[in-house]
User: Fold this.
Amino acid sequence: MDRPLHIVVLSGAGISAESGLPTFRGNGGLWEGHSVYEVATPEAWERDPEMVLRFYNMRRQGVRRVKPNAAHLALAELDKRCSVSIITQNVDDLHERAGSNDILHLHGEIMKARSTADASLVIDLNKNDIKIGDQCELGSQLRPHIVWFGEDVPMIGRAAEIAAMADVFIVVGTSLAVYPAAGLLQVVPDSVPIYIVNPEQSGYQFGPNVRFIEKTACEGIPEVVAEIRSMIDT
Ligand code: NAD
Assistant:
């Protein structure tokens, strides 16, 4: 092959667990003690925007306190040898801080806010929280730049195009329970090797091209990266 190998990674909350950011499925369906329907739906925003902002402000402060782990760093390192596209369900910025270059956030980014009048008006929050009364340039309240349950996933089409172009596909830290993200596996060509890194089996039916690595992200991803690097070197 005269072009660099194209590695596509689908990551979920589990890749950030060893950095100290809890997943919610492992906590009885609760995200830091809250039902997701209480805090991560358009209805929740309608009912109590102040509570929703408080929840995301706390999550954002939590993200600022943690660092990328060995899994994020190994994927960023692989970027130097291959073309690596990361499709993440995570709203944290740990892939960015690890140094990966090509990252698509399917479910939004907690470090950004957007206008409630025009979804294309997105701003970086830097060190700020979002408060009631904070407005976009059109004079509308700012909300977290997050895709809530029940909302469309605008980046899914682009993510499917990327998944269809993979030479190797890696799935890490996702239960494959949240659609449409889980459906991305169906567009990966049958000839493409798929590695799945997760310490727990899911009920997902895998094809013959799938290798399941029953390990945490920090154990499993450096192993997969070493295997891909040896494929390139031979
Ligand atoms: P999920 O459905 O992707 O499930 C988490 C998966 O991670 C589970 O399959 C679990 O077995 C696996 N896992 C747990 N610890 C792991 C480890 N150390 N290494 C590898 N895998 C591990 O994710 P979810 O928690 O149910 O969240 C779904 C959505 O909620 C996300 O897509 C995101 O939008 C939001 N969320 C984001 C974050 C974040 O940005 N860090 C954290 C929690 C929830």
Notes: Residues 12-14, 16-18, 21, 23-26, 31, 89-92, 107, 172-175, 177-178, 198-200, 202, 216-217 surround nicotinamide-adenine-dinucleotide (CB under 6 Å).
